[in-house]
Each structure stands twice: as C-alpha cells, then as structure tokens.
Design a protein that fits this description.
Elements (H helix, E strand, L loop, with lengths): L4 H6 L5 E3 L8 H9 L4 E4 L6 H14 L4 E7 L8 H10 L4 E6 L3 H9 L3 E6 L2 H9 L4 E5 L14 H11 L4 E4 L5 H10 L4 E3 L1 H4 L8 H9 L5 E4 L7 E4 L2 H11 L4 H4 L5 H10 L22 H22 L9
Parallel strand pairs: 1-8, 2-3, 3-4, 4-5, 5-6, 6-7, 7-8
Antiparallel strand pairs: 9-10
C-alpha cells in the first residue's frame, strides 16, 4: 500500500487522481476511477448548466460511494460561465472535494472552504503553488511542461518542478504531466510528490466518454505527436498534432492574432473530435505521456495496476541497488 499525505488527507486508497478534463470528466469515468481506489473528478463546465452539474453529481454518487471531486476551471473569457452558480451547485450537492484551476481562485477557495470542502488547486509553477498554499488550498496539483492543455509559460519539466515543489511546500501535492504507468508514480514519489494526476492516460480507458478512434490514435501515437500552440499569445497549450494545430501555429507565427484563429480553436470543434472520432475536426488536448500508452483498460483496473507497479518498482529498487562506499583520499 502506497500511503501518502495525499491519500490520508482525501480518504482514498491509491495516490492517483484523474484529471478534470473538459468533455471527458463525466460520471462514469470519475466513478470508475474512485471505485478503483483513486480519486475521480467530474468536470463542472462540461455540464451546460449548474442544474446539469447537480444531475451529473447525483449520477456519479449512484455509481460509487467512494470519494470523488469536481473540477472548476476558472477562465477569462468574453462570455464568462456563471461561476458563482456552479460553485453553489457543488456546495448544495454535498461534494467534499473540489479541484480549482486557471485564474486566481481566492474567492472560490474561501467560499468553498466555509462549507468544509477540501481544495486541490492545479497550477504550473512553484510561485503559484505557494500562493495556493497561502490562500488555504489543502493540496496542490502541479503541471510539468509535459502535460496536456495549458502547461504555463516557464517550460519547466517535472524532473525539476516536482522536487522544487517538495522543497517549497508544506501541504501535500501531486504531480501532473507525463505520467502513465507505475514507473511514473514511483518516480514522482521518489522526487517528493504525494501522488500523481493523469489526464491523457485516463482518456484511454473503457469508461472514457470519447470515441474509440481517438482512443486508438492516442495508443498508436508517440511522444512526438503533440503541438504547442498559442506560444506567441503567452497562453501556451499542448494539443494533438493535426492539420488544425499546424494551421494555428502557421498563422500566429506569421504575426496573426487570436481573432485570426478563434474559429479554428473553438471548443465546440474539439468536442466534435471526441464525439465523432475525427481527429482532424478541431483542436484537442493530449500530453506527451501518450508515447507510453499501450492499451485501453477499465479505469479502475488501471488505477490498481499502476499502484501495484509502483510498489513493485520501489521494492525492487531498494533490493537491487547497492551503493558502494568510496574511500576519500
């Protein structure tokens, strides 16, 4: 058993968390991860209204009696979602764990904690993790440069970012970006994390609500088949490499602005990718960890397999590695 500060704080069996992915974090997947002993996450804004979120939470609760959480991603946009209403729906539904991400979560954290809700804040740098700790987050999920979606602008990979967070933080934290198997979990724990967060790996599970063609493309892809877009806009995003991402990079590289690519990167097109299985229909996010994914198992079995692999790897390392003493001249 891999008992860590994170498993103790959030009442789960294995230190493995399912990322709160747009269009993917639905009740079936979240419940399956939680049933397997990890922490499943429903994505609030996948649901079109706060009332729909309440229904989705009820569906998840009917599928598992184990802890699960809700992701609330805070974005700056022209047509802002009614965050206060989504937040109240989470509170009224009796959810006990929320993952926040994106813009400054202070007012949301304060309100949610007033109702006894534990907060995991997802961020991309040590400085943002420290702020999350100051405002009362119970844990941090730290994204390395390998991650899908928005990995920040510092380009720091997990091998550096994880121990840097371990040195700086007092609260538990989990590592995200590049994790897909037990070797990764063992490495994260060794580097000082209290667990891992996986998005791309959980996209390729039987309960994942995306088209089988997209799952198979991820299995067949390598770590080289992603693309960084929006670099010029200081809003870097890692996506699957396809004709649309190539066009976005070309337009912005020639001096274009967001208005010149907004139709190409519309979220509705990305949703179509997942629903219809056409990988060229729009922009869709995937991490470099796709190069490590070989199968499409049940999500709960995946959680248990990764935990067992990590424990075996840690045991074998302590048994097999011998450090010879070197005499000092």
């Amino acid at each position: 058993m891999l008992n860590t500060r994170f498993t103790a704080e959030f009442g789960i069996e294995h230190p493995i968390v399912q990322g709160g992915m747009m269009w993917v974090g639905r009740a079936e997947l979240a419940a399956a991860v939680s049933e397997g002993g990890g922490l499943g996450i429903i994505t609030a804004l996948t649901q079109p209204t706060p009332e729909d979120l309440v229904t989705e939470i009820e569906r998840c609760r009917a599928l598992t009696d184990k802890p699960f959480g809700v992701n609330l991603t805070l974005t700056l946009s022209i047509n802002q979602p009614p965050y206060a209403e989504y937040r109240q729906a989470i509170i009224d539904s009796g959810v006990t764990i929320v993952e926040t991400a994106g813009s400054d979560p202070t007012k949301h954290v304060e309100h949610l904690k007033e109702h006894g809700i534990k907060i995991i804040h997802k961020c991309t740098s040590v400085r943002h993790a420290l702020k999350a700790q100051r405002i009362g987050a119970d844990a941090v999920s730290i994204d390395g440069f390998e991650a899908a979606g928005h990995p920040g602008e510092d380009d720091v990979p997990g091998l550096v970012l994880i121990p840097a967070c371990a040195d700086a933080l007092d609260i538990p934290f989990i590592a995200s970006g590049g994790f897909a198997d037990g070797r990764g979990l063992a490495a994260a724990l060794t580097l000082g994390a209290d667990g891992i967060n996986m998005g791309t790996r959980f996209m390729c599970t039987q309960e994942s609500p995306i088209h089988e063609r997209i799952k198979q493309q991820i299995v067949d892809a390598s770590e080289l088949d992603t693309q960084l877009i929006f670099r010029q806009l200081r809003n870097t995003m890692r996506t699957a490499r396809n004709s649309v991402s190539e066009e976005v990079v070309d337009i912005l590289g020639k001096g274009g602005r967001f208005k010149d690519v907004k139709d190409l990167v519309a979220g509705s097109r990305g949703r179509t990718v997942y629903e219809d299985g056409d990988p060229e229909a729009g922009i869709w996010t995937v991490g470099q960890s796709q190069g490590l994914i070989r199968d499409i198992p049940p999500a709960g079995e995946l959680v248990q397999r990764i935990a067992a692999e990590a424990e075996a790897k840690l045991r074998s390392l302590t048994a097999d590695i011998v450090v010879d003493s070197v005499p000092v001249p």
